[in-house]
Fold this protein.
Amino acid sequence: MHKSIEWTDHRLKLLDQTKLPGAVEFRHYTGYRGVAEAITTMVVRGAPAIGAAAAYGFVLGAAEFQGQDKDEFISHMEEVSSTLAATRPTAVNLFWALRRMEDKLRELRDGGLAEIKQGLLAEAHDIAAEDVAINRKIGEHGNGVIADGARILTHCNAGALATVGYGTALGVIRTAHDSGKNIKVFADETRPLLQGARLTAWELLQDGIPVTLITDSMAGYLMQKGQIDVVVVGADRIAANGDTANKIGTYAVAVLAQAHEIPFYVAAPTSSIDIKLANGEEIPIEERNKLEVREICGCKVAPEGVEVFNPAFDVTPAKYITGIITEKGIVAPPYASNLLKVMVR
Ligand code: MRU
């Protein structure tokens, strides 16, 4: 499996996810503005991957500062942080990672600039390494809800590509597969940008995990026919009451799952929990370019000038969620009290 994110030779190397599965191309970044653009244009995407990329963007921003004045450096870093924060609004991991980098900067503030820059790089490396370890833990916990022979539906891509490695929802699937369970995955294609078709199907095929691709509108039919045993998806932001923002279409899958009495799990690191937000209504939902709906991979599929609505995420109310699989264990309802416990543990 190719790495989505790698720090190499003083540069950030990103696997260009806009080109998959047609081409495996890498891009190298030496400046924070480039990293910000990579996040906005979804060269790198998926909540934890965005967070790690932003942390390395912060490091590059620090390296770009050539002066000696500490106050100038600090105001430069404020600009770096706000540029990176302005890229995508929904995934809270972006803001979580930037806050962690800012905290590290405050902690190192009294040292020399070279020392600060070095310390920031070490912090970004920690964020990246911890992400992979966390995903493996999510996989271990989640494996407990996957039966041998399970047919699992997933939406979007919450895999190695969406993280620094291993994945969240796909981490659960990987662990189940690696533990010898005879599982089968159904991947929603996930319009408009087809993360399921382009990325999840590609990732699972590479690992030899049985995967069947369906269009988003086929999920209900499969459930009705008794072909789905469990749903596992990722998350971009989880509010304190358990309401979960994830890729547009997730909510419809959750409602369908409940109608068919199929368990619906969210797999996410605790860094995706935004305990400050009381409920999902407070989660900002990104709206993206209308062309993403009018076209598919650059090919027109709608008449020129037709009005389009393109929210990139939706919110699944907590009542549809059977459990939230985190690195600290599976959180069950009631989420308002149980998420709080997992945050302090
Ligand atoms: O717009 P994207 O591709 O960044 O959206 C990604 C998702 O919605 C994922 O399911 C989510 O970030 C979890 S990734 C482990």
